[in-house]
Structures are given as C-alpha cells and as structure tokens.
Write a structure and sequence with these properties.
This protein is an alpha+beta fold. It has 5 helices and 16 strands. It has one domain (about 5-315): 2,3-Dihydroxybiphenyl 1,2-Dioxygenase, domain 1, CATH 3.10.180.10. Strand 2 (about 30-40) and strand 3 (about 40-50) form a beta hairpin. The model has no long low-confidence stretch (mean pLDDT about 95). The structure holds zinc ion.
Length: about 325
C-alpha cells in the first residue's frame, strides 16, 4: 500500500510533577532527555521530550507536566499502553531494576508468538510495557547509568482501547497505510508493510466507559511522515475524506497536523526531517530550556514560572 507514513513518531502524555517525570524517564528508564521546552499552547508548562541519542522518530515519549492536574481515567477512546522494546537478555535486568526502584510490574507474559511483555506504570499511573524483541536492531540511548546492552530501544507498539476495531482499522488503513497483520482475542494488530513502523494494537473493551483526560493518560499519538510535502498530501486526503484536520502547526522540531480517528483518539502526523538538533548540538540535547522565537522575548517571566528540573543519573546508577 502506498503511504506517506513511516511509523510512529511520538507519544505525548500528561504528568504532574516535572522533576518526578524526569526521575522516572531519564533516571529509572534511562531515556535521554532530548529537549526541554514549553507547551507552545500553554507556555507556563514544560514540554519534556525523551528518546534515544538523537530523539529519532519512533523513540520519542513526551510530557506536559501540569503540577496539580486532576487525575485521568482509563477507558475507551485512548492510548492506554505505550510499549518499549528491549532485548531478550535484558528482561531479567529490567525486572531487577524496576524492583530496585520499587516500581511494581506484572509477570512477563507471552502475547503473540514469541512476544513477551511486562506491564508497569510511571509515577503518575501511565500504562507502559517492556516488550522483548530480538528483531529490533536499534541500540537506544547508551545512558551512563544503564548497563551496556540493556538500553530501551524505542517504541515497540502502542495499544488503543476502543469499543470496536473495525472503524479505527479502516481509518488507519485508508489514511495512514496500516494493515491488520494479526489478531488474538480482543487484540487487533496493525502495521505498515515493508516499514519498521512499530505496531498499533486496537484492543476492544467490553467496558464502554470513555477515557477521561488528565494526569497519567496519553494526550495524543503522533505518526511520522518525512517532510512538508508528504504531510500536505496526507492532509488533502483527510480533507477529501471529510475528516476534520487542523492547519499545519510549527512545533519547531517538526511540523504537525491533528485529527481524531473514529474511536476518539487524537492523532497527529509530524514531519521527521527537522529534528531536535535544530537548535542544540547533539551532545547538549535537553540541557537548556529552549523556547520558540515568538516566545523568546518572555523568557525571564517564563523561567520564573517554571520549577527548575535536572537529570540526576547518579541516583539511578546500577
Ligand atoms: Zn505531538
């Protein structure tokens, strides 16, 4: 199938305390903070990006930490689990590591053939998994405090909770090029043929209660397209299919369009040709607060309103 989508780009979720968020993702999970900026639509709140060394599409987990935000609720119309890929020989390592930092996790279980997954949650209750995959050639970020060979490599999949899979599946197929490649029980797995895309699982829920956005929930799921031209083609296709889609938004490190799939999950298509080294050297990614030019004149005020945060990997050494 001809598609302009190359796979997952990022997952954006809501959190409460920014420092605890840094401690969890950079500290315990050992992801690299590749950008420290603000929510462009709410400049009094951080936007924190974590990923591999460069923040490649398909590795990027991002957060809006709103101190004091109300708790969210899991339910249909939501990405309820984000799964990261690790090597088979890393499973024991991560069990030990999560234990050491008192993070409860489920017993690893086999889902599809040979696929072993282990569920846990971040400090705000966001659903995460580590999934064993020996077919993933990515190395992840070689963090100084994670034993060599055990780094989290990037996304393996995301799981969306839905009332049914048919409409969402048809939508992802028509507009994004995803095809149904496997199903088991109430789980339907989509991928893009010929691309190392990261799976999108649609999980049908018997409980019809809808998700409520808030702390510990995913805000939106972004797919990657290469450049502005490819993005415009997707936008045109969505419009001609009567899908409401936003204007192109300048997110500094990528350009974005937003729309909802039929089950209610907010989707984004983000370009991958700009990247996080756009305004920082690769060796310094995430070190200083970066602001878009139109907000830069307010830097002093914005910095005053943000609680300082830091990456303390020393406290999270093996
Ligand atoms: Zn986004």
């Amino acid at each position: 199938m001809n598609t302009n989508i190359s796979g997952l780009h990022h997952v954006t979720a809501l959190a409460s305390d920014p420092q605890r968020n840094v401690d969890f993702y950079a500290g315990i999970l050992g992801l690299r903070m590749v950008k420290k900026t603000i929510n462009f639509d709410a400049p009094d709140v951080y936007h924190l990006y974590y990923g591999d060394e460069m923040g490649e599409p398909g590795t990027i987990m991002t957060f809006f930490p709103f101190p004091g935000i109300r708790g969210g609720r899991n339910g249909v119309g939501q990405v309820n689990t984000t799964s990261f890929s690790i090597s088979l020989q890393s499973l024991d390592y991560w069990q030990e590591r999560l234990k050491r930092f008192s993070i409860p996790f489920s017993n690893p279980q086999e889902r599809f053939n040979g696929e072993i997954s282990m569920y846990f949650q971040d400090f705000d209750g966001l659903g995460l998994e580590l999934v064993v995959s020996d077919h993933d050639p990515r190395t992840g970020y070689l963090a100084p405090h994670i034993a060599p060979g055990h780094a989290i490599k990037g996304f393996y999949s995301v799981s969306m909770l839905e009332e049914g899979y048919e409409k969402t599946g048809a939508f992802m197929s028509r507009f994004l090029g995803y095809e149904l490649i496997a199903e088991k029980g109430n789980r339907f797995r989509y991928s893009i043929k010929g691309k190392k895309a990261g799976f999108v699982d649609v999980v049908c829920s018997s409980d019809k209660a809808r998700a409520l956005g808030g702390n510990g929930t995913v805000h939106h799921l972004a797919f990657a397209t290469y450049n502005d031209q490819q993005q415009l083609e997707i936008r045109e296709k969505l419009l001609s299919g009567n899908v409401q889609v936003s204007q192109v938004m300048d997110r500094q490190y990528f350009h974005s369009i937003y729309f909802r799939e039929p089950g209610g999950v907010l989707f984004e298509v983000a370009t991958s040709d700009i990247g996080f080294h756009y305004d920082e050297n690769v060796s310094e990614l995430g070190e200083s607060l970066k602001l878009p030019p139109w907000v830069e004149p307010n830097r002093t005020n914005i910095e005053k309103g943000l609680k300082p945060i830091s990456v303390n990997t020393d406290s999270y050494k093996d």
